[in-house]
Each structure stands twice: as structure tokens, then as C-alpha cells.
Design brief:
single chain, alpha/beta, Rossmann fold, 2 domains, five-stranded parallel sheet, 11 helices, 16% strand, binds pyridoxal-5'-phosphate
Length: 285
């Protein structure tokens, strides 16, 4: 098994960097002065959008839904460092409506906002993973399966468009109700005819963001064998899905397999599981 270290990209790491390369280019071509995006309170995409804006001399406004807790700083601490403005909306509120209102306010103030959707998953954003697919093919021509977490779907869509659906195993994390439709739509927009997707939905557990037992085992195994740090929301579930695929014979010995590490380390420190890990350690001290 090989690991594609997309957790070691810029902006504190993660898969949104490849999408933002294309999304920010599109925004700048349209004359944008400010990037507006949305997500949960610990959105990695929001954090990386804030960093991309800082690098390009743009402003960033992040509409985050949920109940942020300064005792779990995670991505929030980085967003302050990157100089973003955050608008917090309560759980269950209409985030898209709030984003539209923020964009209107910005326009009225003479700014040119570019609104990036949840997870940066437009066809433009997904092009970042079409490029990653080309990179993987060059690095490992005999690659049989790449395994990736699926949130808003752009990552899997780009990989499917570049490698073919039969070489991509997506592991759903429960972020959206219709991941397969989203992946198919985005891959089609990239010019592919995706066919049947290999998308496991057996690792979601109680829901998006909730760590599963299999996910916790995957985190411990990766850390204690390779020093590789996963986080509960995406990568723990992706590795648990890979493990399940080995157990049920979908991935067999000799299959050249790549685990896409999509990042998210800052989010670990914004998740209750981090406090639990530290508590377990101290309880034994
Ligand atoms: C956003 C994210 C994903 C999911 O990527 P999508 O393109 O939204 O499906 C996976 N892992 C991490 C760490 C992420 O932040």
C-alpha cells in the first residue's frame, strides 16, 4: 500500500489546495476582491480558502454553521491567523441564504465577491484532482486502486475522470445526502463517462463528523505503525473503508493500492476525540 501525501500540501495541508488553485484562478479572472465560502465550524475547506485569499491579496469571508467552541480551536485558530472574517450561523439555519446575503452586503460596499460552494466542489475545483490523477499515473503506472474519502465529491470526481471509475474506491463520510449523484455529475462535467462508481457507504456510522469504532481503530493503526496522523471526519473513515475492502476481498494481495491522505490535521484539534485521546493518556500516567 502506498500513501499519496496530500496532507503535506500548503496552507496547513489538505485536498482543498488542489481545488483552490483552479477556483481562485477563476475568481481572479472574474475580477474578485473577496472569496466567500461556507462549511461547518471546523471546515478544512474554509481554512484553506482563508489561506489562499491571504496569499493572493484577497479578503475572505467564511460562513460557518454550528456551535464553535474556543476550547476546540482547530481550524478556527488558523482562520484568525490567515486574517479571515467569520460569520457564524446556528445549526440548521439556511447557510446558502446567509452566503447570498453576505455577498450582497459586500457588493453594496464596492467589493467583488466570488462565492465558492461547499468543499469547493465545482467542475473547476474538481479539475485539481484530474491533475492529481495524472500525477498518480505518472508516479505509479500500475496503480490498481486509489482510496479516497468522499465529502462534497469533487476529489473522487476528478480521480474518476482521470483514472476511470474502476480504479477509484470512494468512502462516503456522510457529508451530503447524494454523494454518488454529485460525483457522477462532476465527473461528467469534466468530460468523463463515469459508469458504475465504487462508493462504499458502510463507514458513515452515526453521521458526518461522528467518529466510528472502525475509524478509531484506523487512526490508532496508522499512528502506531507509520506515524501517520488521520482525523475522525474523513481520513479515519477512508482507511476504515480500505480495511473493509481488504476484509471482503475487493482489494486483494498484489493489488497496487494508494491511500489518498487528504489532510485535515487541524480539524483533529477541533474535534472532541482529541480531548479524549489526551484524557486516556493522562488517565494512565
Ligand atoms: C473536504 C475533505 C475531504 C473530502 O473531499 P471532497 O472533495 O469534498 O469529497 C476529504 N478529506 C479531508 C481532510 C477534507 O477536508
Amino acid at each position: 500500500m502506498w500513501v499519496k501525501r496530500d496532507d503535506l500540501t500548503s496552507f496547513a495541508g489538505g485536498n482543498k489546495v488542489r481545488k483552490l488553485e483552479h477556483l481562485v484562478g477563476e475568481a481572479e479572472a472574474a475580477g474578485a476582491t473577496v472569496l466567500v465560502t461556507s462549511g461547518g465550524v471546523q471546515s478544512n475547506h474554509a481554512r484553506m480558502t482563508a489561506a489562499a485569499a491571504a496569499v493572493r491579496g484577497l479578503r475572505a469571508v467564511l460562513v460557518l454553521s454550528g456551535e464553535p467552541d474556543p476550547a476546540r480551536p482547530g481550524n478556527l485558530a488558523l482562520e484568525e491567523l490567515f486574517g479571515a472574517r467569520v460569520v457564524v450561523v446556528p445549526p440548521g439555519a439556511d447557510v446558502d441564504a446567509r452566503v447570498a446575503a453576505v455577498a450582497d452586503e459586500l457588493r453594496a460596499a464596492g467589493e467583488v465577491p466570488a462565492v465558492l460552494p461547499l468543499g469547493g466542489s465545482t467542475a473547476t475545483g474538481a479539475r485539481g484532482y484530474l491533475a492529481c490523477a495524472a500525477e498518480l499515473s505518472e508516479q505509479l503506472p500500475d496503480l490498481r486502486t486509489v482510496v479516497a474519502a468522499v465529502g462534497s465529491g469533487g476529489t473522487m470526481a476528478g480521480l474518476v475522470a482521470g483514472l476511470g471509475a474502476e480504479r477509484v474506491l470512494g468512502v462516503d463520510t456522510g457529508a451530503v445526502p447524494d454523494p454518488a449523484e454529485r460525483v457522477t455529475t462532476l465527473a461528467t462535467a469534466l468530460g468523463a463517462t463515469p459508469g458504475r462508481l465504487d462508493l462504499r457507504r458502510d463507514q458513515v456510522g452515526p453521521g458526518y463528523g461522528a467518529l466510528t469504532e472502525a475509524g478509531a481503530t484506523a487512526m490508532t493503526t496508522a499512528a502506531r505503525t507509520e506515524g501517520l496522523v488521520l482525523e475522525p471526519v474523513y481520513t479515519a473513515k477512508a482507511l476504515a473503508g480500505l480495511t473493509a475492502a481488504v476484509a471482503d476481498g475487493t482489494i486483494r494481495p498484489g493489488h497496487r493500492t494508494v491511500f489518498l491522505h487528504s489532510g485535515g490535521l487541524p480539524g483533529l484539534f477541533g474535534h472532541p476525540h482529541a480531548a479524549r485521546l489526551a484524557g486516556d493518556l493522562l488517565a494512565r500516567s
